[in-house]
Amino acid sequence: MSTIRDVAQKAGVSVSTVYKVFSDSYKTRDEIRERVLKACEELNYSHHSMIKKRKLLGMMFSEVTNSFTNTLMQMIIDELGDEYDIVTLYSNEDLTREKQNITCLEQMKVDALIFATVSNQEYPEINKMISDGKPVIQFFMQTHPGADAILFDDELGTYQAVKYLIQNGHKDILMLYKYRIGFPQRSNGYRKAFEEEGLEVDERYLYDIPYNDSIRGVIQNKIQELKPSAILAVNEIIATSTVCALKEMKLMVPQDISLIIYDDLPWAAASKLTTIGHAFDSAGSLCKNILMEITGLEKKHTPVRLVIDPMLIVRDSVRILTK
After folding, report:
1. What pairing do the DSSP bridges indicate for beta strands 274-277 and 311-313?
2. Which option is the CATH number for 4-50: 1.20.1270, 1.10.260, 2.60.120, 1.20.120?
3. What percent of the chain lies above the pLDDT cut of 90?
4. Which of 3, 146, 273, 277 could form a disulfide with 268 if both were Cys (CB 3.0 to 4.6 A apart)?
5. Model confidence over 45-70: pLDDT tens digits?
């Protein structure tokens, strides 16, 4: 491997002159600079100042075990990994840790931020990044008006799933979900599907499920109480708990009970479950387009709000009750 001394010898200059060529503090004659750079090229030598500095992208999400989030992050990394060094922090649904993560990313002086928050709280540190002209993209909800937002239309996804169940003869549809302030409300999609069919909504079937160690037991109790013909489980934690609960109750899908889940994860496809899926690759490419557009922009950026529509992926987990 060539050294700076090899470059100096080949260019016919001193080592200190080579250093001066690569320093912003010195001005060397064009003829000397050209000789040094030519020597570098012939010797395949790269000084650290010749290497393009990569920018630092901070990512902050709430759940480390969430397959939806992990798939989304992988698509973002695939799109932006050539342009940015990427650091990812998780809050694990803890608001105190989320605040610590934001402080950490600020201290690291990240050049761009992609994040999703636990709550609908607005952070001054993030607003400062926005005012400094740094690209900031928020997922799932929009709590910082100056940030770009990429949202998933979960209300539409719920509508598609419930509409499909109703069209297949189901009326006793139990929706297991987790209410979060600021997020698109899936219950609105549930109600819309019922209203379009002229059906009344029984509020007992809209169940905001608590997250605790006995989540499977809670689901089993709700199934025994309401005896639904179909279940819509709206995230991976609830979906996996529902599948386990049904197995323990010896209820077969779809013979005994129909099931649709969020999201279209590999295990769901292998189990032939009907799902609500999302175009993760679109989210990754949208992030890249936004970051590339903002970077180097002299005038103030007008934030955009982009919504990714879900898609119903029909498999074999819904029983047809009526033609």
Report:
1. antiparallel
2. 1.10.260
3. 52
4. 273
5. 876 555 556 789 999 998 777 788 88
